[in-house]
Backbone:
């Protein structure tokens, strides 16, 4: 009895742990776009949890990850309206072998046709057309509600915004993707800007689609493949007929589909595409099998999370076994310490792999690996190879007693790990060489001070020669310091000096970005500079005043305050000021017109007569307010136009939030 009870309580505890792990993995994958588990690990954990829940059915509650799809919903104030799906947006069951496919086929009505198509690795989107017009574009969200990212979807070439022949209501779903080429270009830019890289095109596409600036989305070059038609009274008895119709109407329907009559044909399709997919311009991670007949699909129906009429087959990631020689530690430009696996060289997808990131302390512990172990290296959807487990086992293992280093390998400072953060950091930002160089490189970069002739290599050289240690030192450089250096003529020396000189004209908002306060990116700096129009004003700002600026949360505000509390930073700023760097807004930027709406969160809904929505958004900001996407307790008021959405109205009424019309709003901000 004792034993039985023990097993049961152990298994129940395991289920609780798996649930937490899967929820955490879902969040990191869908919301943060930083996957921590390989798809295979994820699926294996999910299968184990399903098995445990089958044994102890009381554990299978509706909020278990086995019963719902991973959610990509942004925070409520993410700037997108959350809208309910007309038909739930589900995920697919995964399979990895012929046996699993055969098992699926066995449960289908005899003789049905199966369509094999590529499984694109982006993020799913549902396009809604009413009277032929594209009216909404919803992300999967939590499967029940999604974020309406229409304004970003409109920037994707090839998605029609009007099709006269469509039925009154028409919905078509597919995948938004960032092509390999665009992905590589984007990561290159991010590398130059010292921004974190996207692990794979899927994460990059997802990050891009949630951006608030459609212009930036357009620039990145997303594309789309559509693969599922929904709606009532549709013509066409089969999935393929409906897709062909959509293609004739001009929709970018996915290519390379094949109707299969047997599992042999399916396997041949898989074998062919596992190789040929490498030539495609976009990422694929498997194939999808669907029952072709719509009537048969309807008969088969759905489980809580997936259709029974479709299944995914995931291509195996390429992996190799090699020896982990040594774990070394890299200090990043922002002070983050990354453990790196140094491996015996091994061939993987056509390249030689010798190093792989181990991310952070917890990752190494969870893999249970030690120096000298044989480990699996994998190149899957990710570009950067990664270690996925020890020889004996695939995936995460027992934790080991692995100890992270305690001091910075570059400067010797004691490392710190903030609560809730995965990374250890070196706190010595102004005295640790890689961080000092990082700050210099950031300062001179194109989007910051844009100093001609100065890049990573020159900064390295100036550093080696002891000519610069911080950004203020740049302004002490003389032509004679440079012209004698290796590879420098008088001309290039002159160019650098005049680039430094020109930087004194760079406006305050970019200077604020350039001085490198943690988490103050380009856009945030702009928003802060609009409100705090000089260094002096910003220096004395409180956390409370700072968080009133759009996009500035508690953490950023604290970073700003902490930045100005450091003596060494103040000394450096003083030197910059003396050199003539702009610490005051020139007046050419958009001005703050009043503080009437300071600290307020305002929702705009409906259509307006006097100004466009964008104009109202700008007005709100120029009078000190924040425009947010959805109504919550924290909403100060709703600027309500004609035809305000009924959902929004209901919600505002339920929460007792004031709704004011266009005229009242203009009066309030003193505008006619
Ligand atoms: S059909 C009811 N077809 O894979 C499910 N999905 O892992 C309808 N995906 O959420 C989905 N290529 O985002 C379907 N050819 C394809 C696909 C595809 C990629 C994605 C989709 C889905 C996920 C499930």
Residues:
């Amino acid at each position: 009895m004792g034993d039985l009870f023990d097993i049961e309580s152990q298994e129940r505890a395991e289920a609780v742990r798996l649930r937490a792990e899967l929820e955490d993995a879902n969040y990191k994958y869908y919301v943060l776009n930083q996957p921590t588990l390989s798809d295979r690990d994820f699926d294996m954990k999910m299968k184990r949890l399903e098995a445990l829940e089958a044994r102890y059915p009381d554990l299978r509650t509706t909020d278990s990850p086995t019963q719902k799809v991973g959610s990509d919903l942004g925070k409520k104030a993410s700037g997108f309206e959350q809208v309910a799906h007309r038909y739930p947006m589900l995920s697919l069951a995964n399979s990895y072998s012929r046996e699993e496919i055969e098992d699926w086929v066995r449960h289908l009505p005899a003789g049905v046709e199966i369509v094999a198509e590529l499984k694109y690795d982006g993020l799913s989107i549902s396009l809604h057309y009413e009277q032929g017009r594209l009216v909404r574009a919803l992300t999967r969200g939590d499967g029940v509600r999604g974020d309406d990212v229409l304004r970003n979807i409109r920037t994707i070439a090839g998605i029609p915004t009007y099709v006269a022949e469509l039925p009154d209501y028409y919905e078509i779903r597919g995948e938004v993707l960032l092509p390999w080429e665009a992905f590589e270009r984007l990561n290159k830019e991010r590398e130059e800007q010292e921004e974190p890289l996207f692990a794979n095109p899927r994460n990059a596409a997802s990050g891009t689609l949630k951006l608030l600036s459609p212009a930036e989305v357009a620039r990145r070059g997303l594309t789309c493949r559509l693969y599922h038609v929904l709606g009532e009274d549709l013509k066409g008895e089969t999935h393929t007929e409906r897709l062909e119709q959509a293609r004739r109407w001009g929709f970018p329907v996915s290519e390379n589909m094949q109707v299969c009559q047997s599992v042999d044909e399916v396997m041949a399709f898989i074998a062919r595409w596992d190789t040929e997919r490498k030539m495609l311009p976009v990422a694929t991670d498997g194939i999808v099998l669907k029952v072709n007949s719509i009537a048969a699909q309807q008969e088969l129906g759905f489980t809580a999370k997936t259709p029974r009429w479709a299944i995914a087959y995931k291509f195996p990631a390429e992996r190799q076994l090699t020896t982990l020689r040594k774990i070394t530690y890299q200090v990043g430009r922002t002070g983050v310490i990354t453990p790196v696996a140094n491996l015996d060289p091994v061939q993987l997808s056509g390249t030689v792999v010798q190093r792989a990131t181990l991310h952070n302390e917890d990752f190494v512990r969870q893999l249970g690996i030690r120096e000298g172990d044989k480990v699996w290296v994998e190149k899957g959807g990710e570009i950067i190879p990664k270690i996925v487990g020890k020889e004996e086992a695939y995936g995460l293992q027992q934790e080991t007693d692995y100890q992270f280093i305690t001091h910075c390998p570059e400067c010797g400072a004691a490392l710190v790990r903030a609560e809730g953060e995965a990374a250890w950091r070196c706190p010595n930002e102004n005295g640790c060489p890689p961080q000092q160089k990082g700050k210099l490189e950031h300062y001179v970069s194109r989007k910051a001070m844009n100093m001609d002739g100065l890049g990573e290599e020159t900064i390295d050289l100036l550093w080696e020669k002891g000519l610069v240690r911080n950004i203020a030192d740049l302004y002490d450089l003389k032509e004679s310091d440079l012209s004698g250096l290796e590879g420098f003529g008088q001309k290039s020396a002159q160019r650098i000096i005049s680039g430094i000189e020109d930087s004194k004209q760079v406006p305050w908002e970019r200077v604020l970005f350039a001085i490198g306060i943690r988490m103050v990116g380009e856009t945030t700096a702009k928003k802060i500079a609009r409100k705090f129009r000089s260094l002096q004003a910003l220096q004395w700002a409180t956390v409370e005043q700072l968080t009133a600026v759009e996009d500035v949360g508690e953490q950023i505000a604290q970073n700003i305050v902490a930045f100005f509390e450091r003596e060494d930073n103040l000394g450096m700023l003083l030197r910059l000021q003396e050199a003539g760097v702009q610490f005051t807004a020139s007046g050419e930027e958009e001005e703050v017109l009043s503080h009437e709406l300071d600290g307020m969160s305002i929702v705009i809904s409906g259509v307006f007569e006097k100004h466009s929505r964008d104009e109202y958004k700008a007005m709100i900001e120029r009078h000190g307010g924040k425009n947010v996407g959805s109504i919550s307790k924290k909403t100060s008021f709703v600027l309500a136009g004609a035809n305000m959405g009924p959902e929004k109205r209901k919600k505002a009424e339920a929460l007792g939030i004031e709704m004011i019309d266009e005229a009242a709003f203009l009066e309030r901000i003193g505008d006619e």
